[in-house]
Amino acid sequence: MASLLVLKSSILGDNSSSSALIDELVNNLSNTTSIIERDLAAHPVPVLDHDIMMGLRGSEDLNEGQKLALAFSDQLITEIQASNTLVIAAPMYNFSVPTQLKNWIDLIARAGVTFAYTEQGPKGLLTDKKAIVVTTRGGIHKDTPNDHIVGYMKTVLGFIGISDVEFVYCEGLAMGAETAETSMESARRTLLSLV
User: What is the C-alpha separation between 55 and 106, in angstroms, rounded?
Assistant: First the structure.
């Protein structure tokens, strides 16, 4: 059975287009696929700071907060390792990914665990996985210099070993009801075809 890790990151709750697309996908696949679902806005991941960063290095002399952060990071990484495919909601907020998604990335990008430094440079350790990034936007940004999400997500996922990355675009959501509905329908079809 295929296994999916589904990450939501929108702060818009019931008004989120990216979450709506993800929810429809989960409903369509729940009988045939093992799904781990994590809502990074409803259940936020801690913000990386000096204390947590030192804890993620895993030294023996950790305080209680660092031990909790390390255990949580291990759990997030185990979820990736257990999945064949990651479906990541990455709505565009001010031309980038939401803080909630960035916080997750900061806790799963760990030297010696999800990537390794080698003589040839960094090498990702989470291989043989696919990622589908669902990116929703109020305007039209695909293939323009304003689209920083595609390059960033390809880079960070490739850094941890996931080079098979596809994007589902849902654009023009603030450009009128007809444009929004057409874009949502196209994104629904594309997303279902990719999983």
Answer: 13
**What are the distances in angstroms from CA 48 to CA 70, 160, 175?**
11, 18, 35
Q: How far apart are the first and last CA of the chain?
A: 13
pLDDT at position 194 is: 87
Query: Could you tell me if 141 and 171 are in contact, meaning their C-beta atoms sit under 8 angstroms apart?
Result: yes
Question: Residue 57 has what pLDDT?
Answer: 87
Characterize 38-63 residue by residue with b for buried, 16 or more Cβ atoms within 10 angstroms of its Cβ, and e for exposed: bbbbeeebeebeeebebbbebeeebe
Residues 110 and 73 sit within 8 Å (Cβ to Cβ): yes
Burial bucket for residue 84 (CB in 10 Å: 0-12, 13-18, 19+) = middle
- Please list, in sequence order, all residues whose beta carbon lies within 8 angstroms of the beta carbon of residue 93, skipping any fewer than 6 positions away: 99
CB 28 within 8 A of CB 117: no
Task: Read off the DSSP letter of residue 180.
Answer: H
Q: How much is the pLDDT for 76?
A: 97
Grouped pLDDT means (10 residues each) for the chain, 195 residues? 88 93 88 88 94 87 92 96 96 95 97 95 95 96 94 97 97 94 94 87
